[in-house]
């Protein structure tokens, strides 16, 4: 059962719908199938992870979901409206922090507010609160070069949230960080998500991260990239690091691992 | 002895260690700063002294290779002339440089913005660089006479190319994610340019500006060589003609000083424009 208060009931209308998305690249030695008829819906406030090995098309899927790349076939709808350009109803966190090196931490977060012509006074208060809430008090006026990798990624998460978007897209956001920093950021992300009703689409290759954070895990397999299994994660929230040792957690991890073993992506 | 040291260290509190490390670091920084100033001066002084002594020891005639003392006394004797000619040359350099920026940067924007324009203009641009500018300099004299304009034009022709190339490169080399980010924020293409592309290109643009300023000096002097009635380049020719080698050296020294001064000003502007950078990108060595 989901105990988090803001999470909407399963019966609610979907926020994001992806219908039969296929993507084919014209390669040197013939076409490459990156995505093969991928369909996926996501409710408001739902945390969905896409987990799979490199080359399974999960990043392509995110680019198409963001409206930053076009699909060869199929369509996406946001609140039942077809999307044919870059979506602006979202915040994006890339694997690389993508901070502007000539702007301080605060100014980087504020870029979003400037771009959207928000009330700058209110936005700055909010940006400062956000930075404090991810443990960056005192680093507001530091340039990216004097922040650690984990801090930079925190700033970029703040930048993706300052306008309170209904959707957050994260493409392996913790992939470049050490495992302790990852654990902390995963906990922070869970807390941040519990405080708002953002639909998070989280791309990762870490099974543990996917199970820990998600309401639903989409398991993808490569060549061609397609959805192999969808697993509802029915663990109480807030989840704790200790729960990773629990039998239920292990059961979910094994199920995902089982898919990769069965498809020969992992061999024992 | 070793025992003593380790014993001493265990007695120090972390605050004491902290203070010691701080002091050591500060002392080292001060030493480094002093070395940065003192060593170049020492090396220059040694070279000058060696030059002076060498010239006397080998009895080299002054008209072939004057000792530093003669150059300095010539510079002092002719200080009014040198300053006046420096002013003339400076105006030519700065005017040529200004035209290079005013033409080069918008040209680079246009090349970046319109691929068709880029395809049609690029070959012209490359050939303008391959063309030996010294060879067309006399033509400018025929067209524009002996005044300021031909020198400015030659300085411009020589100096504008690195600005264009570096600006185009700076604008084009941007992480794709930064553009994605801008799109997801709903930034217009003008705002993306203003807030992201242009600041992203600044280090590269300044690299071009720094190469250009040194080339503008060369251009102005070339212009004066070919058809001048004033300026340091013209004075060099005159001094050469009258075998006044000390004055010739003084003029070369003056030109060098001008070049270094203008370079510093560009570098200072760069640092003011990009306070986030620890050190200015590139230096006279890389330029």
Secondary structure: elements and pairs:
The complex is a heterodimer of chains A (268) and B (287).
Chain A: E1 14-27, E2 30-43, E3 47-51, H1 58-65, E4 73-78, E5 81-82, E6 90-93, H2 105-115, H3 120-133, H4 149-161, E7 167-171, H5 179-194, E8 199-204, H6 207-213, E9 216-221, E10 226-232, H7 247-262
Parallel strand pairs in A: 3-8, 3-9, 6-7, 7-8
Antiparallel strand pairs in A: 1-2, 1-4, 4-5, 9-10
Helix pairs in contact in A: 2-3, 2-4, 6-7
Chain B: H1 2-11, H2 14-57, H3 68-77, H4 79-113, H5 115-130, H6 133-144, H7 148-172, H8 176-184, H9 189-227, H10 232-241, H11 245-273
Structure description:
The complex is a heterodimer of chains A (268) and B (287). Chain A has 268 residues and is of the alpha/beta class. Chain A has a domain at 99-165. Helix content of chain A is 32%, strand content 26%. In chain A, strands 6-7-8-3-9-10 form a six-stranded mixed beta sheet, sandwiched between helices. In chain A, strands 2-1-4-5 form a four-stranded antiparallel beta sheet, covered by helices on one side. In chain A, β1 (14-27) and β2 form a beta hairpin. In chain A, α2 packs across α3 (120-133). Chain B has 287 residues and is mostly helical. Chain B folds into two domains: 2-57; 70-273, MetI-like (MetI-like fold). Helices cover 83% and strands 0% of the residues of chain B. Chain B has eleven helices and no strands. In chain B, α4 runs antiparallel to α9 (189-227). The model of chain B is unreliable at 280-287 (pLDDT under 50).
């Amino acid at each position: 059962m989901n105990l988090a208060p803001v999470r909407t009931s399963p019966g609610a209308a979907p926020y994001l719908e992806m219908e039969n998305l296929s993507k084919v690249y014209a390669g040197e030695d013939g076409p490459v199938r990156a995505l093969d008829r991928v369909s996926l819906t996501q409710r408001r406030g739902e945390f969905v992870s896409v987990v799979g090995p490199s080359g399974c098309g999960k990043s392509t899927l995110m680019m198409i979901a963001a409206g930053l790349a076009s699909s060869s076939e199929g369509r996406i709808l946001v609140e039942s409206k077809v999307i044919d350009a870059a979506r602006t109803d979202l915040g994006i966190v890339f694997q690389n922090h993508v901070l502007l090196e000539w702007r301080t931490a605060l100014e980087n977060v504020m870029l979003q507010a400037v771009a959207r012509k928000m009330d700058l006074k209110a936005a700055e208060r909010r940006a400062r609160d956000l930075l404090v809430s991810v443990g960056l008090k005192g680093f507001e006026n530091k340039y990216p070069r004097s922040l650690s990798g984990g801090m930079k990624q925190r700033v970029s998460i703040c930048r993706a949230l300052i306008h309170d978007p209904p959707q957050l897209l994260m493409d392996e956001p913790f992939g470049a960080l050490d495992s302790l920093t990852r654990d902390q950021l995963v906990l922070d992300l869970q807390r941040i998500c519990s405080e708002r009703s953002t639909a998070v689409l989280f791309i990762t290759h870490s099974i543990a991260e996917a199970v820990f954070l998600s309401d639903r895990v989409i398991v993808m397999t490569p060549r061609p990239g397609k959805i192999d299994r969808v697993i509802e994660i029915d663990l109480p929230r807030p989840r704790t690091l200790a729960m990773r040792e629990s039998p239920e957690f292990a059961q979910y991890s094994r199920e995902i691992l089982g898919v990769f073993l069965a498809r020969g992506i992992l061999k024992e | 002895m070793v025992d003593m040291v380790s014993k001493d260290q265990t007695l120090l509190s972390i605050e004491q260690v902290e203070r010691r490390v701080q002091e050591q670091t500060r002392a080292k920084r001060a030493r480094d700063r002093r070395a940065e100033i003192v060593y170049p001066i020492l090396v220059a002084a040694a070279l000058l002294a060696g030059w002076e002594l060498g010239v006397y020891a080998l009895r080299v005639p002054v008209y072939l290779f004057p000792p530093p003392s003669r150059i300095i006394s010539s510079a002092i004797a002719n200080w009014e002339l040198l300053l006046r000619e420096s002013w003339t040359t400076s105006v030519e350099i700065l005017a040529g440089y200004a035209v290079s920026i005013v033409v080069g940067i918008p040209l680079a924007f246009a090349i970046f913005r319109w691929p068709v324009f880029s395809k049609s203009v690029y070959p012209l641009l490359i050939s303008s660089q391959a063309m030996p500018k010294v060879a067309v300099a006399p033509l400018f004299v025929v067209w524009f006479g002996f005044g300021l304009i031909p020198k400015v034009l030659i300085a411009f022709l020589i100096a504008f190319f690195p600005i264009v190339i570096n600006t185009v490169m700076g604008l084009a080399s941007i992480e794709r994610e930064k553009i994605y980010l801008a799109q997801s924020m709903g930034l217009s293409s003008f705002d993306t340019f203003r807030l992201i592309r242009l600041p992203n290109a600044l280090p590269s643009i300044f690299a071009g500006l720094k190469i250009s300023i040194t080339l503008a000096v060369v251009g102005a002097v070339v212009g004066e060589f070919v058809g001048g009635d004033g300026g340091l380049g013209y004075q060099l020719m005159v001094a050469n003609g009258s075998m006044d080698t000390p004055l010739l050296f003084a003029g070369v020294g003056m030109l060098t000083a001008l070049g270094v001064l203008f370079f510093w000003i560009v570098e200072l502007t760069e640092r003011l424009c990009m306070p986030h950078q620890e050190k200015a990108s590139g230096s006279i060595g890389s330029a």
